[in-house]
Design goal:
Blueprint: E1 2-7, H1 14-17, H2 20-28, E2 32-37, H3 46-57, E3 78-88, H4 91-98, E4 102-106, H5 115-121, E5 124-127, H6 137-148, E6 182-183, E7 186-187, H7 197-215, H8 217-220
Parallel strand pairs: 1-2, 1-4, 3-4, 3-5
Antiparallel strand pairs: 6-7
Helix pairs in contact: 3-5, 4-6
Amino acid sequence: MKISIISLFPEMFGPILNTSILGRAKKKGLVEFEFVGGGAGMVLRADILAKALAKATEKNLQPSAYSLLPEEGRVVPTVVLTSASGTPYKQAKAKEFSKLDHLIIICGHYEGVDQRFIDQYVDEEISIGDYVLTGGELPAMIIADSVVRLIPGVLKKPEATLDESFTDSNLVEYPQYTRPDEFEGLRVPEILTSGNHGEVEKWRQKQALEKTKKTRPDLLKRV
């Protein structure tokens, strides 16, 4: 998979994309990161962004290019703009993006992007939360991180993603425990060391429901 990022500040990404799971995925050749510099301005200019996008796709794009059928052997990228006014980002969208061959993320600016560019070239506007940042670099890192870890072969134990929060259910993940068995007077729940896998699964489901009620009751309204 290739992830192209168009940003005014590409130097911000190095420590994140070259470290931990993302760094290992890059070394394995499972993901390729590309950075393209955009143009400065209080409102990002449509013409400069179009040139940056053309560079990311290695050809001069024409308006509505993404509505056309792909040419034989040509990968048609999905273009995403990080924006406070975009669609809230969800785990389901991360799974969708992880199946792409080429994802292009354009880092929005706090004053916005020329609407004509959005109308012509952007497939989706994505928001990571109901707040405003100075730029879209941090949201782009979040999108990249959430997507790369879902690419087959990136995680040593891919089954680890199956029971995570927001995966195939509207529940957050159940509490996790590890060694030591006792910590400051608190013990690991006995059921988790019982060896009864059926009861452990029931406990996890119950705990996930209780935690969702406490921390994200809004999710239960979607069930």
